[in-house]
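To: structure desk
From: M.T.
Subject: fold request, one chain
Message: Could you run this one when you get a chance? Sequence is below, nothing fancy, just the single chain.
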Amino acid sequence: MNNRYDCIVYGNDIYALIVADFLSRKMRKVLVIQDSSKTENDYETIDITDPENNKYHFEYNSKGIITGLDKQGLTSEYLDDLGLLKEVNVFKVLEDATVNKENVIRKRIHTFEQFRVYLVRYYPKSRNQIHKFFNDLERHYTNYLEQHVNMLRNTSYTLTSLMIEWGDYDLKELLKKYFDDEALKKEFLLNPFINGLDSQEVNSYNFFSNYFIGLKSGFYYLKSSYVELRELLIRKLKLINPKGVIKTRIKKINLDEEGKIKSYIDKDNNEYFGKYFFVEKNPLKFYAKYFKGLEEDLNIIESYYPNINMKQYIKTMYLALNIHPSKIDIDKLVYYFDNSEEVNLKIVKLFNYSLYNNDNKNKKHGLLCLDFVYDQESKYTQDELLKKIYTVFPKLKKNIVGIKEGQEKQYINMLSDVNLRKNLSINELIDIEEFEHIQIYDNLYLGYKYFRPEAGVYGVLNQAIIFGDKIEDRLYFGEDDENFHYMNNEEIMMIIRHNFDHTVFGKKEVHVNFHIGKNIYFVRTKGKNIVIHEGKYSQADLSIYTTNDKLSNLLLKKKTFSEILDEGSLKFRGDTDVLFSVVKAFNLDDYQEYNPLDYKKSKYKNLGAKFLFAYFGIYMVAGLLSNYVDGIFIYPPALALGIILAVFKYRSYEEIHWFDIFINFIFLVGVVLSIFWSYYNQLRFDDHLLGIMGLALLISVFIDKPVVYQYTKFDHNIDYRNSTLFKIISNGLTFVWGFLFLAILLITYISGERYVSVLYNLYFVGIFLMYFYPVIYVNTNIKK
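Reply: Done. Structure tokens follow.
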């Protein structure tokens, strides 16, 4: 059905669209529902005309500083993964200035090392404290970058040291831990993210997760407006799926029997089904609107995010000048003002728009943006603000020829109740870092830009990536059921490798990139040779973009290639003829129907393998005891146990294999010979037992009837047990068992019989390899 989706994203702003873009680029089927064409936009366009009819034009965002866009910076990695890196317009902020309470202006080069040097220069008595703090900060940054890049690259990642060590501190408390000088502590408040906020209410994790990225990999001013970014993301989504973005209003949300979200119903009674749902809304308002009986859950959310409806705002006063700012001593791009925390009206920064705009044509006029913070109860006048700024720049007073104020925007901090952030376990910290602590429904994720407001634009981007990655992981791993076996990407690539028909390409060298969700592999073929690498080939003959489950359906013969192509869940870049040659070469279009009645499946996990372990265990115990005990005491119990196993296996699968008969026949022969031939009964010898079993297992491999396959097939779904990969792994495991039996036999001739009991412990090596050999086989055949 066309109204079924991997994920339905509900939201108007870039937060929601980034989640949708992240998943769509992994070839997930995504629907974006927007209930309004409006979006919250911190970007303002202001025009002022002075008394002499001169025009002043501003395009400004008071919250537009974004961090981490230097090469290999984390934000750069994020935007590159989203396909936005080259399309976002930014301006690098190389330095700024601070204004202290005595109106002294200090220049800062805002990089990690230069900021450290700046602090040591002005606070030499705190030199050791500064170095200790920056050493810890660098350690946290390195770990944070590693974990989040690993998440993006789909490799192992864990809780960051920043969350473990600083996650339970408010900023004032953390700075007090490191520094004694009050003026030094305030240096960390003079930035665009938290200046004007109460440091005792600022979350240290939220702030430093953004701030150290800026120090390490750049502060940038975002020239692209949120509206432009929104339109860019929508265009990208529509390139993948032209019908993937719709405008409607959600009327009702349906739950299934398990209490999961089942579907949305819109105002026109259209129903949209999804596996997962993401909503970018204020969670308190959203849950209250669509669900009943969640008062306790909403209280928990509010305790984690107490300021979510806080009435504190930032506004910009736009100043038109009849002189260029550089001529009245305003020659820096940004000035951050040190504010007393007791006052309600605080100047955050003065932004030199003339310097930013690089308007060299008009040296006779100037443009400044003054950002200030106030709460709803505060009353202020323009004169009050101007008086504050005149004390720092007195020449400004005579040169202002026009003033306008922009729109007020919420400007808040977010620190949870102390009982919810102190003395937490590692698992609780992981839940907070990944937002699982506020998840009410298993398949519904809620995001909101004010969850981590101190992290600025980076915080929104980071949160969207975290949610997108979480949903992608759940779609990737899935849940096995009677109809589908979820394979990991490495298993998929190994099936592709073993499906390869070299006659399709002949001696020609061919390179194919496979983009499977978050992973990329390239296949290189030449003649009969095929090699699989992680990563992508820059000049591939063909690039295929699809998801784990769609490629699994093709390789396991559950769908035709044309069905997958028509669904839009497989895209390619390259020549169509090459595409169909690749399909033929790797057998990607071999749909088959299986009758479930023809295939029995284990009721208990790995039951088939356990039957085989039991047979081998009985056989090895019989072999070991034959070195010490008469055969009459060994073979009858072994035969009885073998027959019991065969009966249970038949009752489980209604199938008797030649190996069931073979092993019990060996025991039966042993019983007969022990009764009627005293020499055999008293023979202290296990070579014949080990040799017969080892050879039987190896012969079954060479005739392509591996014993392991005949037992472990019951532990897997129909589709996977018929794959080439499963048969090859079964062959390998059968060979391993045969080798182990012969190893016990041969090593005794080298080490002597006194170690024979130790050698029989190779049985446990066989069990270990039964579980880990498939992983080892797959991973060692893909070049890193």
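Reply (cont.): The first helix runs from residue 14 to 24. Let me know if you need anything else for the meeting.
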